[in-house]
């Protein structure tokens, strides 16, 4: 009897719920009527999402939200890309990418360079990243110049290593889809830098 009681109760509750609701419509809801599962306070959307994603994604999202909240130096927000996407810029950017970025972000920006596996969070998948709406010039310039120190990531800051022009050249190379630049010295050398079979 004790086992069937809850079932019968639930059944009865289901049957009478519409009726009870109809009756309740007349009376103003009492303060104590709020269902238990309703959260008492509505959390801000960003707080909710940050708590529900894994810690690695949290760091990435922090980078995104810092940028979208304009929490970056004004100079980056105002920066203009005066290098553009010329063949020349892409050709200059290729070797720079190979010299400074490939060991973490991988040959074609898939985040699988030799150093990648030791890093948490892992290097961004730049090939996909540059296609995201957030990846405007100013976002990329800021991320590459300042690195990930403020977010506790391994992304180095390049503002003292590369000129702004060189960073724009790398951006051109990323946006061009990581083309196989003949002039990339590391690629020409082949075997030393990659495990892939030499196809030519
Ligand atoms: C030592 C490894 C390492 C090197 C070298 C490196 N990166 Fe990164 N990079 C990372 C890691 C790890 C992240 C992810 C964490 C973060 O966003 O700070 C990252 C993130 C980024 C982001 C932000 C992506 C996003 O999703 O918002 C950009 C852009 C980027 N790197 C570009 C570059 C470029 C261009 C170079 C070369 C000039 C470079 N990185 C060199 C490790 C590296």
From TrEMBL:
Q: Which residues form the signal peptide?
A: 1-22
Cofactor(s) in the UniProt record: heme c
InterPro entries (alphabetical): Cyt_c-like_dom, Cyt_c-like_dom_sf, Cyt_C_IC, Cytochrome_c-type_DH
Q: Which residues form a coiled coil?
A: none
- Record domain Cytochrome c: where: 88-178
Highest taxon of the source?
A: Bacteria
Pfam annotation, one family: Cytochrome_CBB3
Keyword hit for Chloroplast: no
Q: Which UniProt keywords apply?
A: Electron transport, Heme, Iron, Metal-binding, Respiratory chain, Signal, Transport
Is-annotated flag, keyword Hydrolase?
Answer: no
Task: Give a GO molecular function annotation for the protein.
Answer: heme binding
Q: Tell me which PANTHER family the record gives.
A: BLL4482 PROTEIN, BLL4482 PROTEIN-RELATED
Task: Please give the name of this protein.
Answer: Cytochrome c domain-containing protein
Which organism encodes this protein? Methyloceanibacter superfactus
List the top taxonomic levels of the source.
Answer: Bacteria, Pseudomonadati, Pseudomonadota, Alphaproteobacteria, Hyphomicrobiales
